[in-house]
Design a protein that fits this description.
mainly alpha, globular
Length: 278
């Protein structure tokens, strides 16, 4: 089968199938247990499926590296489900494995749409569309305080410039100092927050938020491309910021004391939100 040609794409923003790509990516953290079972039941692996998958993931497919990174992120979101060890899990890991194959096919098809035939695209997308028929772009549901979560996530890359920026260094040092306060209480509050995430079906979004926060802090410095040597100080600041972002995710169901314990140490990064956590 001849492969369709498409203009070279170097940025996601320029992708001709952007709405579908964003629509699939936005839904990943919202896949619930029932959807996993339906995706697993809908997925098949015939020779035409395998050939379509191979064409979608060829090196010259649009943004194929980003598609593979999305595969990696998907594995991280469902790590607990794949292990099958936690008491709160209800879907068999083998079912999860099969369901995630359907999700990867949808990701591959969305990214590679400009170079796939209509039949190949439909074949790879069919299990996904069986469960999620609506298309279009969207964003992950970050809860009632989504704006605060985004504000914090947007501020974290500033810390990656601490090697050249005095303000970033001062903020980093301040967060490090705060990380030593009430450590035991904060650990218990974080455990409580994760319990809330499980009860409110946000545990996968919890993983997404933590991953996004970590990527922001660990982004290479724009001046020297340094990410800083990983050490205990970096881990302390990272944990402090990750815990705060996740506390905001479940703020509507988290006791005020636990919310304050986790968010107050990073209020300098989200000064406009100070009153919202009191």
């Amino acid at each position: 089968m001849a492969r369709r040609t498409a203009t070279r794409v170097t940025r996601l923003e320029d992708h001709p199938n952007l709405d579908e790509v964003l629509g699939v990516l936005a839904q990943l953290a919202q896949i619930d247990d029932r959807a996993l079972e339906r995706l697993a039941a809908a997925w098949t692996n015939t020779v035409p499926h395998a050939q379509a998958r191979d064409r979608a993931l060829r090196p010259d497919s649009p943004l194929v590296v980003e598609a593979l990174c999305a595969f990696e992120a998907l594995g991280a979101l469902f790590e607990d489900d794949l292990r099958g060890e936690a008491a709160y899990l209800s879907v068999d890991p083998h079912t999860v494995v099969r369901a995630l194959k359907a999700v990867r096919d949808a990701i591959a098809a969305a990214y590679a749409r400009p170079v796939l035939s209509r039949g190949d695209h439909a074949l790879l997308m069919r299990p996904w569309r069986t469960v999620f028929p609506a298309g279009g772009a969207g964003e992950p549901d970050l809860g009632p305080r989504a704006a605060q979560v985004r504000t914090l996530l947007a501020a974290l890359p500033l810390l990656s410039t601490r090697c050249h920026d005095a303000g970033g260094r001062a903020m980093w040092d301040s967060l490090l100092d705060r990380s030593f306060a009430a450590e035991s209480d904060r650990a218990q509050a974080c455990e409580s927050a994760f319990g809330v995430a499980v009860l409110t079906s946000r545990r996968r979004t919890w993983t997404l938020v933590r991953r996004s926060a970590a990527e922001g802090i660990c982004r290479p410095c724009a001046d020297c491309r340094s990410t800083g040597a990983p050490d205990r100080e970096s881990e302390r600041v990272l944990d402090l910021c990750l815990d705060a972002a996740c506390a905001l995710l479940v703020a509507d169901a988290l006791p005020d004391r636990d919310l304050a314990l986790l968010v107050d140490p990073v209020l300098a990064l989200i000064p406009a939100q100070r009153g919202a956590t009191s």
